[in-house]
Automatic annotation (TrEMBL):
PANTHER family: TRNA-DIHYDROURIDINE(20) SYNTHASE [NAD(P)+]-LIKE
Domain of life where this protein originates: Eukaryota
GO MF, one annotated term: tRNA dihydrouridine synthase activity
SUPFAM superfamilies hit by this protein: dsRNA-binding domain-like (SSF54768), FMN-linked oxidoreductases (SSF51395)
Cellular component GO terms held in the UniProt record: cytoplasm
Organism encoding this protein: Suricata suricatta (Meerkat)
Name of the protein described by the UniProt record: Dihydrouridine synthase 2
Region described as Disordered: spans on this chain: 419-451
Domain (DRBM): residue spans on this chain: 349-414
């Protein structure tokens, strides 16, 4: 279990800002390695967090908050203890407090002054952890100063100010003078945000931006997303080195490949059309990402180590392993797995099976999937024409387990399964005519537009021991 200190100092700090799809565990750890004092996670919605189950992951040595669909919503580890701030969007004070008490962390997204005051006051009174608020400036300086004074009276520990109005984008200049006015008005620490690119391109620029805004600390978003070594006093490290370190963390903590791919794309930026960029764009698994960066051997070694840990843990508690609850008699079984690289990107075994059932005027395939709680692996049984099919190999996701079950059905019936080199003309014709067909389980997370960051006001609840930043 990871415990959090009840204090976190916001004076003289350099901070990784909350960024949608960027502030996951690998990026936070990398920022800490390069010198960030405090790291914010990406914004997480209160309702989603309330549905999560807190799980101690013995294999990864992490604490995970897992959604009902078995997706890890938030993952943290001891390395960032006392340095991580959990940030969550909300519009309800009681929900915000409920999540603040879930594992000792919480946050809220704010929209209007009355709601701001209610949510912040509720969090400050209902928890014993430092609460911070992150806002954008309002159209007038007078309204902005009035708002931050109300915020300060709630008893929060600090306020982060993005020096742009809500409708303004990164290409608009940051209003250093408004941040300065706020800093000179309040007695609590003010964290300046919004200086990436125009003001901050290397470490020495961070102090210049702090002086220009008279802020206590500086929070970096895009500059850190492009190259997390921006926090390094000695200067930026080569991008190749930075990306390799990021990938290693992503593999070690089983970060979802879509998130890993997205973050690497933000780092590559204009190099996305390079040979390495094209390999990254084509990658569909963590292994393929590693191979694109010459880390294939590292991936295989790390995967073996993690699997060995799982096997050891399962051996210690065999009674907790659950097999499918149904009667397995009459199920056709094969030891198969779905290897995405062996199939066309547009065609999957599930699609082939669905198309065959439609041609034969059969009911759609029905998938029954279970998960073992200890190693969190999945096994699926598909029913077609009253016959059940199952792969005997457990897989790391519900989607992959269902694809494996479909493969068993197709192979036992001698049907094409969509492998590269196979032809299925009718499938190509039908796939646009059937918008309701299942394309392989729940939709995978697709990369968002590069550079799209969180642009709303926030409040966050932090945890941590005070640590001074040297070199200011």
């Amino acid at each position: 279990m990871i415990e959090h200190s009840l204090s976190l100092c916001y004076h003289n700090k350099v901070i990784l800002a909350p960024m949608v799809r960027v502030g996951t565990l690998p990026m936070r750890l990398l920022a800490l390695d390069y010198g960030a004092d405090i790291v914010y996670c990406e914004e997480l919605i209160d309702l989603k967090m309330l549905q999560c189950k807190r799980v101690v992951n013995e294999v990864l040595s992490t604490v995970d908050f897992v959604a009902p669909d078995d997706r890890v919503v938030f993952r943290t580890c001891k390395r960032e203890q006392s340095r991580v701030v959990f940030q969550m969007g909300t519009s309800d004070a009681e929900r915000a407090l409920a999540v603040a008490r879930l594992g000792g962390m919480g946050a809220a997204l704010l929209s209007d002054p009355d709601k701001i005051e209610k949510i912040l006051s509720t969090l400050v009174k209902g928890t014993h952890r430092p609460v911070t608020c992150k806002i954008r400036i309002l159209p007038s300086l007078e309204d902005t100063l009035s708002l931050v004074k109300r915020i300060e009276r709630t008893g929060i520990a600090a306020v982060a100010v993005h020096g742009r109005k809500r409708e303004e984008r990164p290409q608009h200049p940051v209003s250093c003078e408004v941040i300065r006015a706020i800093a000179e008005t309040l007695s609590i620490p003010v964290i300046a945000n919004g200086g990436s690119h125009d003001h901050i391109q290397e470490y020495l620029d961070i102090e210049d931006f702090r002086r220009a805004t008279a802020a206590s600390s500086v929070m970096l978003a895009r500059a850190a997303m492009w190259n997390p070594s921006i926090f390094l006093k000695e200067g930026l490290r080569p991008l190749e080195e930075v990306m390799e370190k990021y990938i290693r963390y992503a593999v070690q903590y089983e970060n979802h490949y879509t998130n890993t791919k997205y973050c690497l794309c933000q780092m590559l930026r204009e190099q996305l059309e390079s040979p390495q960029g094209r390999l990254l764009h084509a990658a569909q698994t963590s292994q393929e990402i590693c191979e694109a960066f010459g880390l294939g051997a590292f991936y295989e070694e790390t995967t073996r180590e993690l699997n060995a840990r799982r096997a050891e843990f399962l051996a210690r508690t065999p009674e907790a392993v659950e097999e499918p609850a149904e009667d397995t008699s009459g199920i056709i079984k094969m030891a198969v797995k779905f290897d995405r690289r062996a199939y066309s990107p547009q065609i999957t075994p599930k699609m082939c099976l669905l198309e065959w059932c439609r041609r034969e005027k059969l009911a759609q395939p029905v998938y029954d999937t279970v998960q073992r709680p200890l190693d969190r692996l999945f096994c699926s049984v598909v029913t077609v024409a009253e016959q059940k099919y199952q792969s005997t190999l457990w897989d790391k996701s519900k989607k992959l387990a269902e694809q494996a079950a479909a493969i068993v059905c197709l192979r036992s019936r001698g049907l094409p399964e969509g492998r590269l080199g196979e032809e299925s003309p009718s499938l190509h014709k039908r796939k646009r005519e059937a918008p309701d067909q299942d394309l392989g389980g729940s939709r995978a997370q697709e990369p968002a537009v590069p550079g799209k960051l969180c642009k709303k006001p926030f409040v966050a609840l932090g945890s941590g021991e005070e640590s001074r930043l040297e070199g200011w």
